[in-house]
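Hi R.,

As promised on Friday, here is the backbone we talked about, encoded as C-alpha cells. Could you run it through your design pipeline when you get a chance and send me back a sequence?
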C-alpha cells in the first residue's frame, strides 16, 4: 500500500492517516491506498502524443470481429497521422468541435485520436439516439465537421446544422477533396478510408496543446432533463491512461462490445488499452453469441461489461458452457452501474476461473474513481473497490453539510486528476457541481469502510440506470406533459434483473380522458432512444409533491416496489 504507517507527508504538513482506511481525521478526507501514479510534468502535451509514446510489445492493435480486418499498431498510428494532417488541411483547428456518429468500429479510435491530436475536441453521439436527441447535441456543441456512417447520415436531418460537412466512415471510394451527393446530401466531403490511404502532401504547423485544454465533450444526462456536455481534458485522459497502467497487465486481448461513445468504452478502447499494447477485437454492438464466439476465436483474456451483460452470462450459463470455449478468459471488468452482490456471487460460482473486478466512476470523473485490482479485493462483495490512484474523497451529510468519517453514509465528493474541467457552456451547472477547492459533488450516496473500500448505497441524483445508460426522469416527464391528454406525470425507476432499471411513469389523465398505457408508451417511444422508453404506466389521481412543488419520487419508488 502507498500510505505510510502513522502519517503521510504532503508538502510541509504531516497528515495523520489511518493506514487501513486511508482516512485523515484532521482533514476528514479519505486518501487512496494505491501507489500514486506519476503524471507527465510537461504541460504542453496532448493525449494522442502521450499514448503513442507509451512503450509496449503489442503487434496487433485492432481486429474487426465481423470482417476479420486487422490493424497493426504501426498501421494504426500511421492512419492517425494521415487523418490528422487531412483534418488540418480541411481547416480543423484547436478548439473546434468534431462530432462522431458511428457504432463501434476499429476506425472510431483513429478519428478520436486524430481530432484530439490537433487540440480540437471530439464529441461522441450515441448511434441509437433519435434525430431530435442528436440535433440537441449538435446545436449545443456546434461542430465544424462530422464523421458519420452512411446509414446514420439521415439522422442529421432534424438538426439546424443539417448542412454540417460530413466524412463517411464506411465508404472508401470518395475522394476527401471532392463532394459527392449521397441520398441528396451535398455536404459529404470525403471518406475516412481515402484519408487513411492517401499520403499527405506538405507539412502542418502543430499548435500548442495544453493538458488543461478540452479533449473530448461527452454528453451526460442531467437531473434537470437537459443533457450537459462534460468537458474532459487531455490531463484527465492522460491520468486515466496512467490509472489503466497501474490496474492492468500489458499486451492482453479483449473484445469491445460496450459503446465507444460512452465514457466507459471511450476511456478503455479509444485511449487506455491502446497505450498498454492490447489487441482489441471490436463488435459493432452487443450480441451475446457474437461476444462469446469472439472470446473463443480470438482467445480473449479480458472483457469489459456492464451489469446486464454479466447477468446474461449468469442466466445463460448452461448453454454457454456447452457451446463456447472460454478457457482463455480470466478477468471481467464490470462498470457503468452497480452490480448486485447476488449476481457477483453467482457469477463467481459459475465461472470460478474468472475474477470479476468492479469499479465506480462517472462521466464527470473520466470513468474512474474507485476500482478493484486483485482477486482478494473481489471478495469484498458489494464494494466498488478502493479509491483509484491519486483520488481523494469526502463523505458529506447531504442535509447538514457535515463531513463524515469511516462507515458513515453520505454524498461522496471526489477530487482527482480525472475530475472534469466542467460542463460545456454551463457555468452555473459547473459551479454547483465543483467547489472552489476542486471537489466534485457526485450526487451518489456512499460509505467507505474501515479497509478503505467504497460502497455505493443509493443515488441522490434522480438518474435512472438502464443497461448502463443514464436516463433523466425530467426529460421523459417533459415529453409526457406535451401530450394533450396528460395533466401531470412523474417518472421513476422500476427494478429489472437484466437491465438494472427501467423507466416507469405515473400519470394523471385530464378530465374525460381514457388514454391507455399502450398509447402513452407508444407516444414516448416515437421521441426517445430505446433505452429511455417507458416500460410501465400507472394512473394516479395526483402526483405527490412537496410544498414547493417538487415531485416526491421516494414515495413513488416505495409505491412501485410495494407492488412488485
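Update: got your reply. Pasting your designed sequence below so it's all in one thread:
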Amino acid at each position: 500500500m502507498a500510505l505510510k504507517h502513522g502519517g503521510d507527508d504532503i508538502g510541509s504538513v504531516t497528515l495523520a492517516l489511518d493506514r487501513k482506511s486511508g482516512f485523515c481525521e484532521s482533514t476528514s478526507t479519505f486518501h487512496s491506498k494505491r501507489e500514486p501514479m506519476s503524471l507527465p510534468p510537461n504541460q504542453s502535451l496532448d493525449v494522442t502524443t502521450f499514448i503513442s509514446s507509451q512503450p509496449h510489445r503489442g503487434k496487433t492493435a485492432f481486429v474487426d470481429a465481423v470482417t476479420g480486418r486487422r490493424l497493426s499498431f504501426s498501421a494504426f498510428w500511421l492512419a492517425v497521422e494521415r487523418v490528422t494532417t487531412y483534418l488540418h488541411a480541411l481547416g480543423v483547428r484547436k478548439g473546434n468541435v468534431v462530432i462522431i456518429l458511428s457504432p463501434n468500429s476499429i476506425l472510431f479510435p483513429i478519428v478520436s485520436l486524430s481530432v484530439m491530436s490537433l487540440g480540437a475536441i471530439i464529441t461522441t453521439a450515441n448511434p441509437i439516439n433519435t434525430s431530435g436527441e442528436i440535433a440537441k447535441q449538435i446545436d449545443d456543441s456546434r461542430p465544424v465537421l462530422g464523421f458519420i456512417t452512411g446509414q446514420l447520415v439521415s439522422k442529421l436531418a432534424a438538426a439546424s446544422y443539417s448542412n454540417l460537412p460530413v466524412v463517411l466512415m464506411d465508404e472508401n471510394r470518395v475522394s476527401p477533396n471532392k463532394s459527392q451527393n449521397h441520398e441528396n446530401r451535398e455536404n459529404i466531403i470525403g471518406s475516412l478510408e481515402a484519408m487513411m490511404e492517401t499520403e499527405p502532401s506538405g507539412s502542418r504547423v502543430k499548435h500548442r496543446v495544453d493538458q488543461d485544454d478540452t479533449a473530448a465533450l461527452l454528453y451526460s444526462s442531467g437531473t434537470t432533463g437537459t443533457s450537459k456536455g462534460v468537458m474532459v481534458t487531455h490531463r484527465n485522459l492522460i491520468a486515466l491512461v496512467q490509472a489503466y497502467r497501474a490496474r492492468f497487465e500489458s499486451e492482453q486481448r479483449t473484445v469491445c462490445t460496450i459503446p465507444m461513445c460512452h465514457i466507459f468504452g471511450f476511456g478503455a478502447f479509444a485511449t487506455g488499452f491502446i497505450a498498454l499494447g492490447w489487441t482489441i477485437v471490436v463488435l459493432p454492438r452487443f450480441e451475446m453469441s457474437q461476444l462469446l464466439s469472439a472470446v473463443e476465436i480470438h482467445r480473449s483474456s479480458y472483457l469489459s461489461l456492464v451489469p446486464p451483460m454479466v447477468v446474461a452470462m449468469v442466466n445463460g450459463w448452461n448453454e454457454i458452457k456447452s457451446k463456447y470455449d472460454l478457457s482463455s478468459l480470466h478477468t471481467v471488468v464490470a462498470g457503468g452501474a452497480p452490480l448486485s452482490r447476488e449476481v457477483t456471487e453467482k457469477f463467481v460460482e459459475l465461472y470460478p476461473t474468472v475474477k470479476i473486478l468492479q469499479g465506480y466512476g462517472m462521466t464527470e470523473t473520466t470513468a474512474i474513481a474507485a476500482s478493484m485490482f486483485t482477486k482478494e479485493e473481489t471478495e469484498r462483495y458489494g464494494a466498488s473497490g478502493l479509491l483509484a490512484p491519486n483520488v481523494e474523497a469526502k463523505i458529506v451529510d447531504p442535509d447538514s453539510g457535515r463531513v463524515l468519517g469511516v462507515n458513515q453514509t453520505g454524498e461522496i465528493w471526489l477530487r482527482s486528476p480525472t475530475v472534469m474541467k466542467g460542463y460545456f457552456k454551463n457555468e452555473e451547472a459547473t459551479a454547483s457541481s465543483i467547489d472552489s477547492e476542486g471537489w466534485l459533488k457526485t450526487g451518489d450516496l456512499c460509505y467507505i469502510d474501515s479497509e478503505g473500500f467504497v460502497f455505493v448505497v443509493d443515488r441522490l441524483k434522480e438518474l435512472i440506470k438502464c443497461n448502463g445508460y443514464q436516463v433523466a426522469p425530467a426529460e421523459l416527464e417533459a415529453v409526457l406533459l406535451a401530450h394533450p391528454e396528460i395533466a401531470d406525470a412523474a417518472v421513476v425507476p422500476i427494478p429489472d434483473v437484466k437491465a438494472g432499471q427501467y423507466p416507469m411513469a405515473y400519470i394523471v389523465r385530464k378530465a374525460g380522458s381514457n388514454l391507455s398505457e399502450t398509447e402513452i408508451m407508444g407516444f414516448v417511444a416515437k421521441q426517445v432512444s430505446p433505452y429511455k422508453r417507458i416500460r410501465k404506466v400507472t394512473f394516479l389521481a395526483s402526483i405527490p409533491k412537496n410544498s414547493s412543488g417538487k415531485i416526491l419520487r421516494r414515495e413513488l419508488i416505495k409505491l412501485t416496489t410495494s407492488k412488485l
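One thing I noticed while checking it: The mean pLDDT is 89.

Thanks again,
M.
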